[in-house]
Automatic annotation (TrEMBL):
Domain of life: Bacteria
UniProt keyword Isomerase present: yes
PROSITE patterns recorded: FKBP_PPIASE
EC number per UniProt: 5.2.1.8
Protein name: Peptidyl-prolyl cis-trans isomerase
Any matching Pfam family: FKBP_C
InterPro entries reported for this sequence: PPIase_dom_sf, PPIase_FKBP_dom
PPIase FKBP-type domain ranges (all copies): 35-121
UniProt-annotated stretches for the region Disordered: 1-20
Catalytic activities: [protein]-peptidylproline (omega=180) = [protein]-peptidylproline (omega=0)
Entry keywords, A to Z: Isomerase, Rotamase
Family to which this protein belongs: Belongs to the FKBP-type PPIase family.
């Protein structure tokens, strides 16, 4: 399967207060379980402005990492995905980088991620 960079639709309205998980494409490969190492491509945008703040697509290579090292929204939102799947996560601040003034440039922001799960490995 050839992947194309996703376009993230600007949702408008009030940001959610809980994690929203939407499967855009169901994969048929190995399932990501809690504590797995994953390889993904992703795009991240600010919920309020719709501005992109990061994307592995811009670097031309996917990233590999253990789920336990990521923001809570990814730790909760990626398990259950299968390789080949694409999922959108809408992550409120308390599951991302914390309240305003927490020291991260994205603190206090609700974030939208579209994640393509390319590979799952046990940690």
């Amino acid at each position: 399967m050839t992947l194309e960079r996703p376009e993230v639709d600007f949702p408008g309205g009030e940001p959610p207060t809980t994690l929203e998980i939407t499967d855009l494409r169901i994969g048929d490969g190995a399932e990501a379980l809690e504590g797995a190492n994953v390889t993904v491509h992703y795009v991240g945008v600010d919920f309020e402005s719709g501005e992109e703040f990061d994307a592995s697509w811009n670097r031309g290579v996917p990233i590999d990492f253990p789920l336990k090292g990521l923001i809570q929204g990814w730790q909760e939102g990626i398990p259950g995905m299968r390789e080949g799947g694409r999922r959108q996560l809408v992550v409120p601040p308390h599951l991302a980088y914390g309240p305003p003034g927490s020291g991260h440039r994205l603190a206090g922001k609700t974030l939208i991620f579209v994640i393509d799960l390319l590979k799952v490995a046990r940690s």
